[in-house]
Design a protein that fits this description.
Number of domains: 2
Helix content: 25-40%
Shape: elongated
Structural class: alpha+beta
Number of helices: 11
Order of helices and strands: HHEEEEEHHHHHEEEEEEHEHEHEH
Number of strands: 14
CATH class of the largest domain: Alpha Beta
Length: 310
């Protein structure tokens, strides 16, 4: 067998998921995976995404990506190409087993439902620690914060942090946390979308960002358009996020001049998310507009620099 034929046989016959399971001890995060993007975890903060039906992969925390050969060298940089090929030969034709990842509760609060923990927090108010953080350090205008408070989209968190609610059928199902000292989310939730704005008959545009702070920032930069619902995915596009976006697009598709504006970050990861979100808009028959922040920034960076929209 020629070298070119063997390399092609390995590329077509070895799934990147199998490599992760057999060589790296990675496990599948089922709730955060989709048919096109399998999210694998190993240890705290280690994530790799398998795509292209197992033929490709990428690291959402860096710019690393590639095929099955690149993956082996990413997991073990000490291996030269010859050894990589040797390791992959024995995996040809093996199907992934998709072992499920388990997440340990990190505190006693993990047992409390997310909606219950949300209900126990104080409302966002002018001069409060979360308000001061968002207005002072993040430069979110007071009128945007007042609207977010009125919509119960943001509440006071611990130690000056702000809590941002994802909702499903009107109920809080996931909470993202941003503050001067911490960035993350509450355990035990199911991510959908963070919404800002009211879905009224005039809404014909869905503007999608990654972080809730970017959704508020884009709303501020655009003058909080009455025809737009600003939403944030909270980073990766999981099953709950996909369902929520699909439902949102279905609601605006009949509106005149309906538009799906994608405002993910101006970097490799943001562009990759934009491609995933664009597919949803195209499937729904909604025209897609890419709002890409300039100069490799996100919308809050633009707002803090006082640059406005170009």
């Amino acid at each position: 067998m020629s070298e070119d034929i063997e390399l092609q046989r390995i590329r077509e016959g070895v799934s990147c998921a199998v490599v992760l399971e057999r060589m790296g001890g990675w496990r599948l995060d089922r709730p955060q995976s989709t048919r096109r993007a399998l999210k694998y975890r190993r240890g705290e903060g280690e994530i790799l995404i398998v795509n292209h039906n197992g033929r490709g992969w990428w690291d959402p925390t860096s710019m690393a990506k590639g095929d099955v050969f690149n993956l082996v060298q990413h997991l073990n940089p000490a291996l030269n190409f010859g050894w990589v090929r040797h390791e992959l030969r024995r995996l040809v034709g093996i199907a992934p087993s998709f072992p499920a990842a388990t997440r340990e509760r990190r505190s006693r609060h993990g047992a409390r439902p997310v909606a219950e923990r949300w209900a126990a927090r104080a409302a966002l108010r002018r001069g409060s620690p979360a308000w001061s953080y968002l207005a002072g350090q993040r430069h979110i205008p007071p009128e945007i914060l007042a609207a977010a408070a009125q919509q119960d989209a943001v509440r006071e968190g611990y130690r000056g942090s702000a809590w941002f609610a994802h909702r499903r059928k009107g109920k809080v199902c996931h909470v993202e946390v941003r503050g001067p000292e911490w960035k993350g989310s509450l355990t035990g939730g199911t991510k959908t979308l963070f919404p800002f704005g009211h879905f009224t008959p005039t809404v014909r545009r869905a503007a999608v960002t990654e972080a809730p702070i970017d959704a508020l920032s884009l709303a501020a930069l655009e003058g909080c358009r009455a025809d737009t619902l600003y939403v944030a995915t909270g980073g990766g596009i999981g099953p709950g996020t996909t369902m929520a976006l699909t439902a949102l697009l279905a609601r605006i598709t009949a509106a005149p001049d309906a538009c799906h504006a994608i405002g993910t970050d101006a970097n490799t990861t943001g562009d990759r998310y934009a491609e995933q979100i664009q597919e949803l808009g195209q499937s729904a028959g909604v025209p897609v507009e890419r709002l890409r922040p300039p100069d490799g920034l996100d919308w809050n960076d633009i707002l803090m620099k006082g640059r406005g929209m170009r």
